[in-house]
Amino acid sequence: MQASLSLSVSNPAAIPRSGHGFESSLPFPSKPVNLRFCGLRREALGFSSTSSSISAYRSNRNAARSKKVWASLGSDNGSSSSAPKSFDYDLIIIGAGVGGHGAALHAVEKGLKTAIVEGDVVGGTCVNRGCVPSKALLAVSGRMRELQNEHHLKALGLQVSAASYDRQGVADHANNLATKIRSNLTNSMKALGVDILTGFGTVLGPQKVKVGKDTVVTAKDIIIATGSVPFVPKGIEVDGKTVITSDHALKLESVPDWIAIVGSGYIGLEFSDVYTALGSEVTFVEALDQLMPGFDPEIGKLAQRVLINPRKIDYHTGVFATKITPAKDGKPVTIELIDAKTKEPKETLEVDAALIATGRAPFTNGLGLENINVATQRGFIPVDDRMRVIDSNGDRVPHLFCIGDANGKMMLAHAASAQGISVVEQLTGRDHVLNHLSIPAACFTHPEISMVGLTEPQAREKAELEGFEVAVAKTSFKANTKALAENEGEGLAKLIYRPDNGEILGVHIFGLHAADLIHEASNAIALGTRIQDLKLAVHAHPTLSEVLDELFKSAKVSF
Amino acid sequence: MAHLLQTSFLPSSQCLRPNPDRSSSSTSSPMVQISRRRSKTGGAVQAKIREIFMPALSSTMTEGKIVSWVKSEGEKLAKGESVVVVESDKADMDVETFYDGYLAAIMVEEGGVAAVGSAIALLAETEDEIEAARSKAAGSGSSAASSSPATASTSADPIPAEIAAPIAASAPIAAAPVAKLASAVHPASDGGKRVVASPYAKKLAKELKVELAAIAGSGPLGRIVAKDVETAAAAPVPVAAVTAAAPAPAAASNVELGTVVPFTTMQGAVSRNMLESLSVPTFRVGYTITTDALDALYKKIKSKGVTMTALLAKATALALAKHPVVNSSCRDGNSFTYNSSINIAVAVAIDGGLITPVLQDADKSDIYSLSRKWKELVDKARAKQLQPHEYNTGTFTLSNLGMFGVDRFDAILPPGTGAIMAVGASQPTAVGTKDGRIGIKNQMQVNVTADHRVIYGADLAAFLQTLSKIIEDPKDLTF
């Protein structure tokens, strides 16, 4: 959940969707390294025919390298006097989450001898405490919602009597899924020959990493991929029972009658979907003036009409929760609210539980960044557009990269992975700059929300600055045959584009399977495909993908 | 559109320009159709107040839902500005005004539905006319706001005050009688100053127009939960004497003879249940009960909203409390359960079938709340909104056909329960008394069908004797 959708506020210039603190809160279990993983994209590669050829290739290369390659490296590294003369590895990645995993698999594919350092469990936040278990809960909530919606079922001619659930069974499903994905992930790396070094990773100096207490390993290049931890604002006391973070919530140890969710971003929204489907009532506490601040305003408005208003949810906007006290001695959880602008006390809520989903902070403490003269910015490691770490003098630190949540460019699991792959491309001789505007994001509510590129206000601002015209096209799910067959006509797809050249600036979808539909748009942005070409592409009928087909066809490109 | 043209005013230079794209130039933007209200009375030219109509945004649209008002009452509008967002059968569209002026009165609130062509707001040309427009809206608005398509044409006529009156009068009903229910105060609510209510309770209260401050909460720590709001909303409505069966005689005449009609889902469910009942060995015991005292009691407390159904349910529940075996059920054929609560299911005929809303814990609730609950259940049953726990948790079933004059009948035991009681009409009967005289008493016959695997003849006999004592001396029913 967290990893799938998270955008940082730390570095607005680099972030396509500004202004929304991405919500989440996964308490970090006092372990050093953590990453997130949201897909097993490369896993299959490792087991197939390529694995043997890769390892054969690698061993050949390693043998050769010991004689001649190191010599040349010496001159490369002239800038750092303490640099070792020979290396244990070509690449060390600190953090075995989804970013590190993606980078490691790609590095092996490219023939690099690779090690990954993990101080906690493989898989990081995403697999263990994030998007993976949350998808299990959302799968349950989606079905519950359907079974409870008598009106909807009746329209389909179905009759179901009293749907109910077993809380422990639901919790086990989430836990089993996380365990399964974690072992898949570990096996995929082992099978490819990635060394998994267990222990807290610290950067000792250029090209040198300490693992655990006293193991020192050297590598030609180092990628920091330590991820992030949940941000719990001060004044909030988390007891893990009644005041919880998503870490606890994903274990689903209880389903409170009334839960306050602090933060109405992706994480808060997804949990509200889970909790209301399981019978809870929800109160949102949002510091900004409107709910779902990160979304395109139009999508946000529609989402609020579908995901908030008809459900057992109320909300307080424009307020900060300054103090949250867990329930004890028969007293409920109390939440003190102040006005976000005037700072005046507003109200005290009394609820059965509170879920803190107020954002994430990078996990970079104890990484030994002082050894290489790197100063973090609010915890984030500064990097350039090629993920190369910048030190406190503004110079590049050679052979050191940082990907994923730790650099704060775009706090999404798949963004971390993409950044890792981009770094490996550079290391193996192919310059590559990742286009963050082509990275999609999704929120797995029912129905789902997905987006790629700019929101309409961002696009208009950019257009103003750069002097081009912006146009918007929209299509409704109400006109899609497949959506109507599913009796799920609620939804909207929105295209923001340049009518002069057909460039896609942003696509936002709210509706059935929106998260799966967005990739046609994100791939088009990544590959630079223009609308006039997309108009000619064929979509199977009847499918939901025709929503995008119609969307592209309705765009008016003067070309 | 047709009925619009029959109204007393004509849409002047109306123009519909639906366009889903708010950003595009206004030349292709949707415009609200606005008509000038023609002055009907008096020779003087009246204030220029125009009505804003629900536009037809697509060829198939018959009604539209107001998603949101972009402008609020009193705001100045310029030609071409968005006023309202309307959801049609296809999409949401911003609708723009064709005239400058002031949005004087909103007649259909957000979330409301209005037929295409019906007035949804009034537009005043100058600020001075806002008041005049508002008073007009007050007359017609109340009916328009009910969002029935039929109001489209009526809103144009000057609406006499009395139409608005009943609506206005109904609003405070909720507050007044509810006040006396407010016995408990949330312990953490600053001595009652602050109302602690769950999100859904708040939503319901708004919908049902119930004052939260006047409700006692039954949730954790005295919190007001949805159930409390529903109870409060149902409370003040005088309960009509709804008895069990509410037939739909009109339907009978509409039946097309000679046709084969497949079962509805409800009929299918009934059919399955009836077949299942054949596997249970049942027997029947009848009893005649004198109801003079019960009738007298009913007459006395009828005005307080008490129904005969509730009285019978209550009496049955009290009798069951003394004979738990009659309230038991056998499901597997090897064991049986003494049910922990006494939930009286009462059979109700509804359009196209039969359903058994359940009065839960009927022995523990007082007769007034039981009556309210019953009313609420019947309404929900008619609206087909009963939740499963409201119709499938019965432990004992009542079926009453007395209102048709049926004097005795025989009921089939619903599977999963131990017994069902068929209640006939109470009618004046000549009876011989012990002293050898003949008198007239109101008597009704009841007939209990029970599962003989767990309930034996003596059990039923003893139960019926208790029941008849309770009914013949009904003081315990009102305690």
From TrEMBL, chain A:
It is an enzyme of class 1 (oxidoreductase). PROSITE patterns: PYRIDINE_REDOX_1. It holds the Pfam family Pyr_redox_2. One of its GO terms (biological process) is response to arsenic-containing substance. The keyword Flavoprotein applies. GO terms for cellular component: chloroplast stroma; mitochondrion; oxoglutarate dehydrogenase complex. NAD(+) binds at residues 263-270, 286, 359. The active site is at 541 (proton acceptor). Binds 1 FAD per subunit. Keywords: Chloroplast, Disulfide bond, FAD, Flavoprotein, NAD, Nucleotide-binding, Oxidoreductase, Plastid, Redox-active center, Transit peptide. Its EC number is 1.8.1.4. It comes from the Eukaryota. Residues 439-550 form the Pyridine nucleotide-disulphide oxidoreductase dimerisation domain. InterPro entries: Class-I_Pyr_Nuc-Dis_Oxidored, FAD/NAD-bd_sf, FAD/NAD-binding_dom, FAD/NAD-linked_Rdtase_dimer_sf, Lipoamide_DH, Pyr_nuc-diS_OxRdtase, Pyr_nucl-diS_OxRdtase_dimer, Pyr_OxRdtase_I_AS. Disulfide bonds join 126-131. It is found in: Plastid, Chloroplast stroma. Its cofactor is FAD. FAD binds at residues 135, 201, 226-228, 405, 411-414. Residues 89-420 form the FAD/NAD(P)-binding domain. Lipoamide dehydrogenase is a component of the plastidial pyruvate dehydrogenase complex (PDC). Belongs to the class-I pyridine nucleotide-disulfide oxidoreductase family. NCBIfam families: lipoamide_DH. The active site is a redox-active disulfide bond. This is Dihydrolipoyl dehydrogenase. It comes from Linum tenue.
From TrEMBL, chain B:
Residues 49-124 form the Lipoyl-binding domain. InterPro entries: 2-oxoA_DH_lipoyl-BS, 2-oxoacid_DH_actylTfrase, Biotin_lipoyl, CAT-like_dom_sf, E2/Pdx1, E3-bd_dom_sf, PSBD, Single_hybrid_motif. Residues 135-155 have a biased composition (Low complexity). It is an enzyme of class 2 (transferase). One of its GO terms (cellular component) is pyruvate dehydrogenase complex. SUPFAM superfamilies: CoA-dependent acyltransferases, Peripheral subunit-binding domain of 2-oxo acid dehydrogenase complex, Single hybrid motif. Residues 12-41, 133-155 are annotated as: Disordered. CDD domains: lipoyl_domain (cd06849). It comes from the Eukaryota. Its EC number is 2.3.1.-. Its cofactor is (R)-lipoate. GO terms for biological process: pyruvate decarboxylation to acetyl-CoA. Residues 196-233 form the Peripheral subunit-binding (PSBD) domain. GO terms for molecular function: dihydrolipoyllysine-residue acetyltransferase activity. Keywords: Acyltransferase, Lipoyl, Transferase, Transit peptide. Pfam families: 2-oxoacid_dh (PF00198), Biotin_lipoyl (PF00364), E3_binding (PF02817). Belongs to the 2-oxoacid dehydrogenase family. PANTHER family: DIHYDROLIPOAMIDE ACETYL/SUCCINYL-TRANSFERASE-RELATED, DIHYDROLIPOYLLYSINE-RESIDUE ACETYLTRANSFERASE COMPONENT 5 OF PYRUVATE DEHYDROGENASE COMPLEX, CHLOROPLASTIC. This is Dihydrolipoamide acetyltransferase component of pyruvate dehydrogenase complex. It comes from Linum tenue.
